[in-house]
Write the structure tokens for this entry.
Amino acid sequence: MGSGRVKLRRLLRFPDNVRFQIWKQMKLPGVLQVRLRGEDGPTLLLRPGPTHDRGIAREIFAEEMYALPAAYRAEAAAPAWRTIVDLGANVGYSILYFLRAHPEARVIAFEPHPAHVACIRRHLVVNGVEAKRVELHAVAGGAAAAHLTLTDAGATSEVVTKSAGAGGIPVEVVDIFPLVQELEIDLMKIDIEGGEYAIIDDPRFARLKVRWLVMECHRTDAVGEPYTYCQERLKAAGYEVMSRPEGAAAHTEGRTSLLWARRR
């Protein structure tokens, strides 16, 4: 972890900052409940290691990996965002970020991991989120309906076609296209550990009405250089792919790459 990164604790209210540092340094068990500064600061539930909760919360709220690249923020300001689709909502931090950043939007979220779904529901309760603002699907989003296996690897859990062994979790995969094809989507976020390729390779993807897209492209056995592959597929589907050089969440070489795109 680079020393130049923004620390999550710097965003917390003073009492919660102190509690957070004690919890972290002493490696205390149990879920820690903290709140970000500001009148509309969301309440976060942080599970102890070996979960990735702290790192994911830092990326989303401190590094703002889901904030539009600065050069496009003025352009996207109007009209107000109304519909956000979150494929791979994990424990719900991204949902809370979107709800705070776009107060008129509703979020349609997909997350198959049962423990993560439970965390999302707790986050919605402790933050008093109205039911009409979040539509939660406790399934994996894909390009075809199926019953598959989810590897139980926390934030990096992925849907696989073969048995994942004793630690695998049976999950339902739904075809997302009939669910979202009629929507005017302001932002679609995709972070599904390699499942993105079935979606962006599907010919129906080009027909979705999506203004802005942010996705993590993951290295797989079939896709050796994820950023290049996703860039080419999105361009073919009618998107302009944007680089994001200014932040810690910029495009990175390696197993994953964060990519932003907008409909041309």
Helices lie at 14-25, 53-62, 73-76, 93-101, 114-126, 177-180, 196-200, 226-236.
